[in-house]
């Protein structure tokens, strides 16, 4: 799968390489001390709103630059030369922000339901060279006391974002273009199992010499699937770490330890960005901190949802998410 239009590939050295630092701030949940003072109006309302508006602008900028085929090179030159073209970034920015917002609201709503104090989603604007954002975070302002609350809060974000990403991917694929594979040069996107299946369902079987240039909505959906798979890694404070600890307790640390050599191998044989994720796994901590009542049973329904989350990870994971041809 190719995530950019045909004209964009001419500028691959300037635009189509994902800085590995982008992945360090994809959506995760941060824990904070329970006895922290009441947040100020600025941190509670002003900061989230300002960051969101800045992210709207940077993702619009990135989306418009993806579709730009004029003479200006580089996102800054593009913005100065053709600011009236920003509206062309609406499909990409709208789809991407809808996916990320749904993900974070999943955490937010379930945190409120379990009476865990939590901040509004904090979006992080990024450089417009690729997607224009470093993701978003939710800041926990109190401890998660029960095993069920940990599971619900951890699993709600990825599953909510996944549903929206699937809908966006179907729409994006229906608007995408099939081209000769030899005509696409630049960034190539990995194809997780779900993308392969939906592409076959929406576009139909493709001959070996054909490739799909994703519509901006499809590209945003692809990135939403990528974020989902990263967050479901069973490591520390990632969503997958919350879910794995709620399901299997201390065995979550064993799963995290087993994932490290896999990430290192994938980094060596495929995408070098996995080295960063292996490093960050050690930095964040592989194990998950205990909850107050680890013996509380999850129940049959939550266990089923946990296995569904594992299946979502399998069908959204791409061993080599990015490559350049």
> What structural class do the secondary elements suggest?
mainly alpha
Give the strand order, joined by hyphens, for the main sheet.
1-3-2
Strand content: 5-15%
The shape, in one word, is: globular
Mean pLDDT: 88
Order of helices and strands: HEHHHEEHEEHEHHHHHE
Round the Cα radius of gyration to an integer and report it: 20 Å
Low-confidence stretches: 5-35
Q: Regarding quaternary structure, how should these chains be classified?
A: single chain
Specify the biggest β-sheet. Answer: 3 strands, mixed
- State the total count of DSSP E strands: 7
Distance between the termini: 12 Å
Number of contiguous helices? 11
**Percentage of helical residues?**
40-55%
Short description:
The protein is mostly helical. Helix content is 54%, strand content 8%.
Task: Describe the overall structure.
By secondary structure, this protein is mainly alpha-helical. It has eleven helices and seven strands. The strands form three sheets. Strands 1-3-2 form a three-stranded mixed β-sheet. Strands 4-6 form a two-stranded antiparallel sheet. It has a two-stranded antiparallel ribbon with strand order 5-7. The longest helix has 28 residues. It starts with 11 loop residues before the first helix and ends with a strand.
Provide keyphrases for this structure.
325 residues; 7 strands; globular; 11 helices; mainly alpha
Summarize the SSE layout with pairings.
Layout: H1 12-15, E1 29-30, H2 41-67, H3 75-81, H4 90-113, E2 122-125, E3 133-139, H5 147-174, E4 177-180, E5 187-189, H6 193-202, E6 210-213, H7 216-231, H8 239-248, H9 251-269, H10 273-284, H11 300-316, E7 322-324
Parallel strand pairs: 1-3
Antiparallel strand pairs: 2-3, 4-6, 5-7
Helix pairs in contact: 2-4, 4-5, 4-7, 5-6, 5-7, 5-8, 5-11, 7-11, 8-9, 9-10
